[in-house]
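Batch manifest line 307
LIGAND: adenosine monophosphate
JOB: complex structure
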Amino acid sequence: MSLLVVGTVAFDAIETPFGKTDKILGGAATYISLAASYFTHKINIVSVVGDDFPAEHIEMMNRHGIDTKGLEVKQGEKTFFWSGKYHIDMNTRDTLDTQLNVLANFNPVVPPEHRNPEFLMLGNLMPRIQQDIMRQMESRPKLIMMDTMNFWMEIAWDDLIETIKMVDVLTINDEEARLLTKEYSIVKAAKKILEMGPKYLIVKKGEHGALLFNKENVFFAPALPLEDVFDPTGAGDSFAGGFIGYLDQTKDISFDNLKRAVIFGSATASFCVEKFGTERLTGLSQNEVDDRIQEFIDLVQFDISLV
Ligand code: AMP
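JOB STATUS: finished
ARTIFACT:
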């Protein structure tokens, strides 16, 4: 098994109704690879940071089995920085600041030994870079999944549409699906997106769960009702990491197995939001993960007999 993850490795400053952080470890690739590490091994990341990025964060990723050979450290430059503030419902947030820094001139180079992954996860990043990564693959991975956000719809629309055409699975949130298609109905939006190229679409709806579509089927998984939600940052990425980590472990890309992967993704995301930043994702035990999956099974199980 092997999974290549591309995306930001970042500093985030987060404000939620429960508190505020200074610069802490964040970034799409960080959350995705940590989440995937609970299901698969052989995870390689491609990203870039500045020389202000502490070695201890890289060591922590390595302890999770994440190979950071493709993480470039640029001397004299600063790490990507993002800052966001959540509204009282914790489902919506405002971006307060995005400083691309080292990302502005990033020309990623996938190490030659990592150019044949079975699964490729293109985390939220400039669409041009996501395309560049796909072109560096020696053969087409079994499955290519990408995430994106409204920021790129605003500043790189054409590149984004081209990138979406090239992937197998697109994952975005409901608001972004509407923005991308100009359709209010998620079902109509899904139809339009599936006509753009991807075989599958995952629409994340925060605390209201996630929908998986292909042209013939739709599947819904709820989010776990949690007593304490401290920080939703990285929930979408943790979902993607759990989802693709499970696929890499099982190698089965049938719709039925993608449904199971949605549950694994949802379970991983439910851990992420329980603490600020990556804190909760850095020390989970296998038992905790297994128990959480069982909670999901129990949550949606019911008996009905139709007469
Ligand atoms: P999520 O909450 O799953 O949407 O992901 C949050 C992570 O995305 C944060 O850790 C940020 O560092 C990262 N992020 C925020 N804005 C961008 C952007 N424009 N491009 C790439 N990554 C971003």
